Amino acid sequence: MSSLMVLVWISSNPQGLAQGMTLVLKFQIQPSFGRSVYGIGNSSEQPNSNSIFKGLRVLLADDDNVNRTVTKKLLERLGCQVSAVSSGFECLTALTHSEAACQIILMDLQMPEMDGFEVAKRIRKF
User: Fold this and answer.
1) Which of 83, 72, 85, 84 is nearest to 45 (CA)?
2) Residues 6+ apart with CB under 8 A from 80
3) What are the tens digits of pLDDT across the range 7-37?
4) pTM of whole model > 0.90?
């Protein structure tokens, strides 16, 4: 049994325009009998061997270096294999030239030159 729950919060500025967004994804891929992503007191940099994300191939696209670095580290701590790129064009190139297909794409929607919405449109045409 697998399920996905997505929660999205958008905060607006005084003019009513979108200012920020919070996205929470909750996955349940298998029954979690005695399994956890983070063990109690686990502060190790090594991936948790019980992680349901272990070996998951992720393509991460974000033009902000800090966001990209932090997100990549967090995903790696969960056991994901992460390829990180800094633009929409690099994301499309990585998808077309990748030897091992990614299973999930995490993408910033507001990138210069080609935003995440345009990248998603082009990916759908593959």
Assistant:
1) 72
2) 53, 54, 55, 56, 57, 58
3) 666 677 777 776 676 666 666 655 544 444 4
4) no
From 77, 53, 47, select the one nearest 2 (Cα to Cα). 53
Residue 94: strand, helix, or coil: helix
User: What sections of the chain are H helices per DSSP?
Assistant: 65-77, 88-97, 116-124
Cβ count near 116 (within 10 Å): 19
Written as six digits, the tokens of 39 are 């063990």
Q: What b/e readout covers 63-74, taking b as 16+ CB neighbours within 10 angstroms?
A: beeeebeebbee
For the chain, give the longest Cα–Cα distance. 48
Confidence of residue 65 (pLDDT cuts 50, 70, 90): very high
